[in-house]
Amino acid sequence: MGSSGSFKSFKADVYVTLKRTVNDPQGLTIRGGLHALGFESVRAVRAGKFVEVWLEAEDEAEARRWVAEMGDQLLANPVIEDFRVELRADAEEAPGGGE
Amino acid sequence: MALDHRALGLIVPDMTDADRWPQIDDETLAQIALSRDEYIRACELLDRAPTDVELGMIGALWSEHCGYKHTRPLFHHFPTEGERILTALGDENAGAIDIGGGWVAVMKIESHNHPSAIEPYEGAATGVGGIVRDIFAMGAQPVALLDSLRFGPLDDARNRRLCVGVVAGIGGYGNCLGIPTVGGELVVAPEYAGNPLVNAMCLGVARREQLISATAGPAGSKLMLVGADTGRDGLHGATFASVELDESSAERRPAVQVGNPFLEKLLMDACVGLVREHRDWLEGLQDCGAAGLTSSTVEMAERASAGIIIHTERVPRRERGMTPYEVMLSESQERMVVSVKPDHVEDVAAWFAQWELDATVIGEVTSDGLARVMDHDVKVAAAPVRMLTDAPTYEPASARDPDAAARVAFDPATLPDLAPAAANAALLELLASPNIASKRWVWRQYDHQVGTNTVVTPGADAAVLRIRGVEQALAVCTDGPGRAVELDPWAGAVRAVAEAARNVGCVGARPIAVTDCLNFANPERPAIYHQLRESIRGMADACRAFDAPVVSGNASLYNESDDGPVLPTPVVGMLGLLARPELAVRSAFRNEGDVVLLLGAGLPQPASSLGASEYLAVQHGLSAGPVDVDLEAERAIVNCLVDAVETELLQSAHDCSDGGLAVALAESAIGGGVGVHVRGDVGERLDAALFGEAGARAVVSASRDVVAELSALAEKHGVPCTEIGVVGSDRLIIADVINVTLAEASDAWENTLPKLLD
Amino acid sequence: MRFAVVAFPGTWSDWDCIHALRDLGQQAERVWHRESDLDGYDGVILPGGFSYGDHLRCGAIARFSPVMQAVSRLAERGRPVFGSCNGFQILCEAGLLPGALLRNHSLQFRCQPQYVRVERADNGFTAACEGGQVLQLPISHGEGAYHAAPDVLRELEETGRILFRYCDETGALSDDANPNGSLHDIAGVLNAQGNVLGMMPHPERASDPLLGGTDGNLLWRSIIERWG
User: Fold this and answer.
1) CATH number of the domain within which C188 lies
2) Is residue B477 classed as helix, strand or coil in its secondary structure?
3) How many of the other CB atoms lie within 10 Å of CB of A79?
4) How far is A31 from chain C (nearest CA, A)?
5) What is the pTM of this model?
6) What percent of chain B has pLDDT over 70?
7) Which residue of B has its CA nearest to C19?
8) In whole angstroms, what separates CA C157 from the centre of its chain?
9) In this structure, what are the phi and psi dihedrals at residue A62, rounded to the nearest 5 degrees?
10) Counting Cβ atoms within 10 Å, is residue B266 exposed (0-12), middle (13-18) or buried (19+)?
11) Does ipTM top 0.95?
């Protein structure tokens, strides 16, 4: 994935969640905690991961394709997890890095 | 800001004229935890007002945490030298002890109390990270961790949250490193509510020639920073640890760092390997801990009687816009400073690159005795190293706490004795006290076996570690009886050392060295300073008696919350040497028919033995009574135990401490899954016979055919030895007054913490 | 036999495995994860630890290390590949074994002695055991709950690829004896060819009488007998 041509900045929010069929003890524990706090109307909780990816791509379609590949190959494990992506042309600066 | 280039040498003024120096507001002083007098002293030593960066550096280095302002004048009490001792107390990151065959043990204990009170998981985790770096900064491979923990009562949700978070944080960090967590303590008392104590101890081993000093080395040596990038985390952590906790503490959360154990593991493997393979490239190795680059580089310079120059712009950053002040005081974790011979800078960088670690030259050793800090070509600090490290010391007023003095004079004989019919219930209640109950809930969350050297695992009197290539084995434990120290600081501290010595003695090891963590409240109050001074004297006397010098330690003062001061808690980390790992004896009974013997004073006990006991606390709600100690008897029983183990006379050995004889018997029985039947005259006080906590006693078991030999050995050591019963059946029967099933006892002992904490 | 014991950044059971194998007179060498050539080795061990800090998911990053392609090639050639703890997680992430390891149901790390039942002894990894034999092997993990889709589990059951199950000391299965919530009490699974095994317990921690157990040696001896 080279860096030639005119590239645009994008930010992808990747939501990784356990498949519905996979038991989620963390979610159950959080639900118990919420019940203990008095939020008795909580019926279910599922816990997952949230990954923010700042990237550059020629256009939105390419960015979307790359993030989907990232999800398939690394960010989610298809045996137990699903993921969905929210992508937008990035206005905010990527964090970190030196000066 | 540019400095006036006048002479910056050390000037000791002969008169104080506070008005000579620029005004400074209280808020600035509070932020760096410096008193106005200390500020003036700094001005006088410099003969000018400090720059902003210097002020921050002085605040950090003169903090209690780095400068030991209230404890340094007391350290001369400690015995610190011995045939085996290779380091002087306080000179290096940890103490080193010769264990024979060309090997050394390296150890230290350190507190992370304040950070853990604010954010228990990360506070405890980074405490583990810090102590581990202290060990590998010596060139040693860390081989074991122990954790000495104190919390408020666990029926309170806040204390439970702290306990659960601290235990998870210790496991989360230590497990990831591949260092087994093999022991420690968990003690609960109301005085620790709001200010938990989290002390982490690490033990390492090295070949003797691999020991490396945290020195800067000669002028011209290059200072390289390795590991994590520097961020704003932990700013003012050292000063934060030196003030009392109050309601606003939670707002200071940014001072708590977030640990990265994975990075620490790489850093550890790379540093230990570097010292092992290429010791000749290096001048010194130093942990970058409290007060960050400031304390690490200035202390390195002090050890070399040298100066340093740091170029802050070369320090790799994690955040934008950091000032030189922030760079010098950041407490970002997982960083080390390496002093490298100039010709080997590239070699060292390439070495760390194998672990995907960056090593950057950030400065150099100089010969002018100054700690100079540059921001590009602007000099932002240039203070004499000796002035920075020469924190003022204080010996404040001392006075015995009248309340404790009254309680220690309490005579337990004035209490009604335990009725025989209530004895079973009293034992079960004690077994279910969190201070006595099984700590399995804690240590099953710690990897205690990685490294495949843990011969005796947690839950024993002391852990035993095999060192491959060494004939002897190491035994380690921690002890810190806060309640006894509060009642009688000298005797309580003696008891801390004696219990630790007995614990390593029970597995068969001879005490050889001590590391200590002094957890006290605000020493500026006379009662607290009295506790501090007397308990240091007590530990010193006891260490001398066992010929176990103090090799390292840490002081954590100002442990107070809105609820008041913590119990004065000097925690002793004891190292013992065992002739061979195969000899190690456990506390659990092993064989039906084995004879049970009591080493030390016999069954009948005076009511005074209930002083400071768990029994008085649980049954009478009292923290009172005398704290009796007999150092001669303590030394004799440890020698007796070690000889008995070395001659393979014992099947089990367990010291009598919290909960007394009855609890010791119950624990040995539960551990072995087999009952015990004890007979004998309990004397005039049933409560004291069962639950008295007189020292210098241990319950041992032996096969019938060696009992005579064991008795003779005990007699040789001047240790009373009484045959009190037999191992067998599925009941715990003591002197016809206690008769419970093993299952009942086990249920009370095993299930307390899971019920409270899961 | 000559074993490659692979170390990723964050691996910590590498030396424990090397000591266990050397104590049995075998050659065992530590191989850094950047190595892409395992020719000359008769078998591979993927030891426990926290490769890459267990970030994202246990084993998720390690599977992209150069050594993993060499591990796959060795497996294709029928040589034994054994992953314990983090090694099991990596083998699952890499697709050399089916399924995945999830957080323990207790949400806590568990380090304890554990009974496991040998489901079949007609296999290269368990030939020195009896079928149904109960072994005591330590566990030490926070994410060991085996999960696989129902059809995968059915296939594993029908083809006899579940080699170890958590049990009590009598060999009986129960929720109490299952330390992490693994489906079907699975402690270890084989690939279809029977030469790749992943399991959560640590046999290298039960290979020395000084440490209180030697059941792990049954596994090492089986491997040496079958592939040595």
Assistant:
1) 3.40.50.880
2) strand
3) 19
4) 14
5) 0.93
6) 95
7) B452
8) 18
9) -65, -45
10) buried
11) yes
